[in-house]
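S1.2 Input.
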Amino acid sequence: MASNLANLMFRAMYRFGFKPWDSGVPPPELKELIEGPEAKPPGRALDLGCGTGTNVLYMAQHGWDVTGIDFVPTAIEAARKKVQAANVTPRLIPGDVTRLADLGVGTGYTLVFDLGCLHAIPDGRRDAYVAGVTKASAPAADLLIWGFYAKPNFFINARLSKEEVEQRFGKSWELVRAWGGE
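S1.3 Output.
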């Protein structure tokens, strides 16, 4: 889970409707995995830091059995409204993504999706995140992670590099692609 200051910041941002990370559109990499020429067959998907449910909804509409988790109750409420309006039934859980076993998410996920969650988790909790994701995932699962690699500042202490992903996930996972950024 994010630090207490970040937790308060995210809750306030949702409350005031300021969600610059929530475009309302699934990213092209997810669309490629779900609908592209080498699309994966629908399976179980886990969306970590699901926010208002844009990607949970997208995956559920394409036949995936989806579980979305977010620590901001307002985000989960918005996700519930969104999926109910679309008449799909993913599982939405308010909670800490570094404590997946405590949330009862289960195992066997063939797709784990993280659009900017891991990079906001304090360094001391990232190994718990990795352990939970690894335990919840099926063998040969796909893991899509988006993270900032920017200089931390007062407002954003979010940072995640390709090297950190490789180091933390180690031999349990194979890094297939990484895109650079600033």
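S1.4 Remarks. The longest strand covers residues 137-146.
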